[in-house]
Design brief:
2 domains, single chain, Rhopdopsin 7-helix transmembrane proteins, about 550 residues, Heat Shock Protein 90, 19 helices, alpha+beta
Length: about 550
Amino acid sequence: MVSRYFIGGVVVYRKEIISYIICIFLVFLACLLHALDYFINLNFPVHAIIFALYSFVIVLWMNNMKNRVLRSAIVARFKLIGFLLISYLLVRTLKYLILIENEDAVRFIRYLYLVFPLVLTQLIFLTSLHVGKSERENINKYWSLLWIPTLIASLLIITNNLHGLLFSLDPNAKSLQMYGPVFYFVVFYIGLLTIINIAFTMIYSYKNRYLSSVKLPISIIIIWGIYTFLYMTGWDKFEYFKIFFKSAEFNILMVMLFIESLVFKRLLPSNRGYELFLSLSSLNIGIMDSNGQMIYRPKIYENIDSSLVCRALYNPILIDENTLLESAKINGGISFYFVDLTDFNQLKRKLMNMSEDMLNENELLKAKNSLKKNMIKVEEQNQIREHIHTKLQPQFDILNDIFMNLPEDEDLFETKLKHACFLDVYIKRYSNLFLLTKNKSTLNLSELKLAFCESLDYLSLTGVKTKIDWEEYTSYDKDFCISLYEIFQNALEFYMPGISSISISFFMKNKKPQLIIKITGAKEKSFLYDLDDNYQQNGILISEDITKDEIKLVISLERSKL
């Protein structure tokens, strides 16, 4: 089993912790080399060694991001950032090892010191635009226009020898007199992007009432800004800190730490989070794969024997006096959980140890009420299970038929399994929506969007092109929301196989919610004939427009039901 730990409510795997420790050690080693070289003047190429140390740290970070971030475009941008960071450090290293005696080269490298942070800030800003978006959502293409001032500023920087607008060409200039208007524009532009970066991050966290998630990335930006300010003003006491952290190295660390904080706090879409849900759940759930390997261990009985889990598939097993083990098959393995019988056994012992002549009417009433509460809870759980089973029976039947008749042909086998995965995610998401709204009258539309997105993700595995456009994130009537998901699933199952693409749009029209489903490639037939009449009785309007190229379904709510 892969070891995982919870740090600040976030799941961190052991291999990630090891990489963090290695990176911290390498950075500490680089700081030590800087200090030794400053005080005793080491007789070997310190800058080359430091370049190798930081390059290894950057490569570790890039590999870490590749394994954790879901969106391929963001991973590609992180690779570009990593390449620029290594190039940034390489330029600094060449300056001290080879070009230190060449004044023109040193001056040009000094200009490049400003180009790299400028471009890196631009890339970080574009990355922050993905905060709060799923791996399927794109940012507005017009944000790319920000590359125009970035490239113009970069051109002015590297041509400073011609105009002196970046750094003063006067060799006697000191402190703030050294900087020209282009320098201040670049600093202002970087600061502006940073402020907008913070704003976008905080807006998402404010909407989701999760402001604690932005404390870490914003703290890193503040530290970065303090370092830049002290570096520009040339404060004497700050020179001691610069002995350990040169500007290039500190900028590199801040870039990696800021991006790491966005991924660590799940502000960017990553493959983390399900373990947190299970750890916070009051249910002692465990997951075992089909080979008997534990994928997730419950909070109690962590070393449960896999053979007991398999036996519990047929009949629940009493582990001890107060614990009952139950198992159920899931896609790819077995889920098992422990039922706590402590309260039930305590109540039973209390009734058995009390003689009839010592029980008064109040004690009998308390025992009766306690038992009644337990029975109500059991009945409620049975009702939930029965409702979900009834609603999802068609999907369960299809899944059972798929697994009972798996073909031997590899291509057909893969097609059947992809279809099973599509049904399985609907079962999971429908159950989740029902449980979320069990004691509520409304459902947050962001949860409904997640259900649609995950179904489309699994549908895309079968080769179907998918697209979703979602404009509303408020809360709405739970029955209407769940009905939308049911109609969406029924429509897909009705027109499968043969669908080549599907497009989903959800928005408000005349203050009425409206869902539009566009399907291409499917056989031309009416979906409304097989539809349950209960939808119309509940005020849900469904219209269809069938053409040769496209089938369009429009689902909305009658105004009288608003």
